[in-house]
Amino acid sequence: MSIVKINVLTVPEEQREVLEQRFGARAGAVENSDGFEWFELLRPLEGTDQYLVYTRWRDEESFQAWMEGGMRASHGQASGSQASGPESGEAPKDGEAGGEKRKPAATGSTLWSFEVVQQAAPKNA
Ligand code: HEM
Question: Which tens digits make up the pLDDT trace of 55-96?
Fold first, then answer.
């Protein structure tokens, strides 16, 4: 069965809107990747202040392939540690126009990996 990769993002309260807008702007970033099955950006309501970036993949290989191709493209930097680079891939220097936009909204991230062992969906879905 599929595997689930969840990126856990620590986002200060005042940066939430910025983060969500950036994800919105990147809609379409993974849809065409081979083996991609599902994506959800989960905003915390209670119990944690961390956002979850839920992604599900056919297998580990599909995820790794995306990490090395599509993810680099969609996150601006190879490591993903500077996730908010502009679409062009050009990196404006701090202080330049766009510098504010480039600063990550997230202050930290952790990747969790799971395999799906059981699942269910509504009968008529
Ligand atoms: C499990 C797979 C993923 C990993 C490992 C990953 C990696 C990361 C990391 C490390 C950050 C934080 C960067 C920072 O603090 O500067 C981040 C933020 C972000 N990622 Fe991902 N990501 C994943 C999935 C996705 C997907 C599927 C999308 C697009 C739909 C996406 C778009 C973004 C955006 C827009 C940000 C916000 C940048 C900001 O902090 O302003 N990510 N990601």
Answer: 999 999 999 999 999 888 888 753 444 444 444 434 444 444
Q: Is the CB of 11 under 6 A from ligand 1?
A: no
Reported as a single tens digit per residue, the pLDDT across 3-31 is 999 999 999 999 999 999 999 998 888 99
Ligand 1 contact via 74 beta carbon (within 6 Å): yes
CA of 71 to the centre of ligand 1 (A): 8
Cα of 90 vs centre of ligand 1, distance in Å, is: 18
Are the C-beta atoms of 104 and 83 separated by less than 8 Å? yes
- The pTM of the whole model exceeds 0.85: no
